[in-house]
Design brief:
The protein is of the alpha/beta class. It contains ten helices and nine strands. Helices cover about 40% and strands about 15% of the residues. It has a five-stranded parallel sheet with strand order 2-3-4-8-7, sandwiched between helices. It has a two-stranded antiparallel ribbon with strand order 1-9. It has a two-stranded antiparallel ribbon with strand order 5-6. It binds magnesium ion. Magnesium ion binds next to β5.
């Protein structure tokens, strides 16, 4: 008899596989933005294993919800999620970052099925999301736009222009998720530019704001339920831990772009497996 999985358990298993696959991709290359993928795995799993409406065999289906990865360097995590969704093959993940691969280190919409935008010039994702959400509404298309952005992108003026624009147009078909991992390329987010109190800023811009533990699947599921009911744009502020699930990487000082020694990969794999015992299918 096949056990019926709860939504929560299904998403947890997806998040575990996303972490395993991201770690594997990093190992093939010997480096990469592994920490971000591990930290955001639960957010990506909730989106791809529960929230997003899509057709795996038709990535351009007009009725699909659009997931916009504003942070192009998180592509390693998104590729693992796209494999989880069946949009790309798990075997293809091994080509990550190689010449002629459809899976470059920084996401490129023209290369990868299911990749909606080429993020990477940070601070642009939400502006594109606003235009897309407005366009869908004009077309009478009921699809949603979900924009994933980072706490570092809250330093960018364009993000706040977009936030005000979304509110002005009452874009209830737009949800933003912010990965608050407290780190950006130049150092700790709080030291680069103070953005707290973050939730108050979004609320002041007219958004329905919630702040949750971004590594807590149940909290994320509940936040999406509330966000979907809002009649204004909704933001889910997700506090995450970079490297989540692999203590060796969680405690690494230079975590933005990780170099992992050859003998450390086996330790990473083992720590991930042990930490998620009882979760993996
Ligand atoms: Mg960050």
């Amino acid at each position: 008899m096949t056990a019926v999985l709860s939504t929560s358990q299904k998403v947890r298993e997806a998040a575990y596989r996303i972490r395993c696959n991201a770690l594997h991709m990093g190992e093939v290359q010997g480096q990469g933005y592994v920490g971000q993928a591990l930290g955001a795995a639960d957010m990506l799993a909730v989106v791809y294993a529960h929230q997003l409406r899509y057709r795996a065999d038709d990535p351009h289906w007009q009725g699909r919800d659009r997931f916009l990865l504003s942070t192009g360097h998180y592509a390693i995590g998104l590729y693992a999620a796209l494999a989880e969704a069946g949009i790309i093959d798990v075997e293809e993940l091994e080509t990550y970052g190689s010449d002629d691969s459809r899976l470059p280190m920084s996401g490129m919409a023209s290369y990868t099925p299911g990749m909606e935008i080429s993020g990477g010039s940070l601070g642009h994702g939400l502006t594109v999301a606003v235009g897309m959400a407005l366009g869908l509404r004009h077309q009478g298309n009921g699809a949603r736009v979900i924009n994933f952005l980072s706490d570092g992108e809250l330093d960018e003026g364009s993000t706040w222009e977009a936030a005000m624009g979304a509110s002005h147009h009452a874009l209830s078909n737009l949800i933003a998720m912010v990965d608050i991992n407290a780190l950006q390329a130049d150092g700790p987010t709080a030291g680069v530019l103070r953005t707290e109190p973050v939730a108050d800023k979004w609320t002041a811009c007219g958004w329905f704001a919630q702040r949750v533990d971004g590594n807590d699947v149940d909290a994320l599921l509940a936040a999406f339920d509330a966000a979907n009911d809002a009649d204004v744009p909704a933001v889910i502020l997700c506090d995450t831990r970079i490297g989540r699930g692999v203590p060796l990487l969680e405690n690494r000082e230079k975590a933005h772009f990780m170099r992992i020694e050859e003998d450390e990969w086996a330790i990473c794999r083992e720590q991930l497996r042990t930490g998620f015992e009882g979760v993996s299918a």
